[in-house]
Amino acid sequence: MNKGKIFKLAKGFRGRAKNCIRIARERVEKALQYSYRDRRTKKGCLLALVEEKMKTIIVNDDPPIILFHYCYQVNYGNFMHGLMKENIQLNRKVLSELSMHEPHSFKSLVDISRSAFPGNKNVMPAPQKKGLQILV
């Protein structure tokens, strides 16, 4: 890289790392390594967060807002396998958004997954709480 590009990338660094070419070159190389590594780490963390949200919504039996979340009582792995067998190609982020904002649609996906994968049929849905009516 030429000197101008290095100084442009080193803008905002502290001390001589922003205006001394030898130090700036080292710091810029290290910064680019960190950014490359952390872009991948960020994707992994976001994916783990989406999966954790969906698992919580699927398994949680006493959610704080019961009108927006259902107690599906289905294993996450079996749920995803059932969707795969039915050729429903929704990624985990979309499924997480559906489970939070469209609980009726998500419940129908859970039912489809249950019917597609025999491992899901043995698990019955959680009983409804008294005095609470959820229309599906």
Largest sheet, in brief, is: none
- Span from first to last CA? 61 Å
| Helical coverage, percent range | 55-70%
Can you count the beta strands? 0
Strand content: under 5%
Count helical runs: 6
Give the CA-based shape. rod-shaped
Mean of all residue-level pLDDT scores: 76
Uncertain residue ranges: 61-70
SS-derived structural category: mainly alpha
From the alpha carbons, calculate the radius of gyration and give it in angstroms.
24 Å
The domain count comes to: 1
Q: What is this structure, in a nutshell?
A:
The protein has 136 residues and is mainly alpha-helical.
Account of the 3D structure:
The structure is a single chain. The termini are far apart. The protein has six helices and no strands. 16% of the residues are buried. With 136 residues, it is mainly α. The chain has one domain (3-121).
Task: Supply database-style keywords.
136 residues; mainly alpha; rod-shaped
Question: What is the fold's blueprint, element by element?
Answer:
Layout: H1 3-9, H2 21-59, H3 76-85, H4 92-101, H5 103-116, H6 118-121
GO biological process, one term: translation
Family: Belongs to the bacterial ribosomal protein bL20 family.
InterPro entries: Ribosomal_bL20 (IPR005813), Ribosomal_protein_bL20_C (IPR035566)
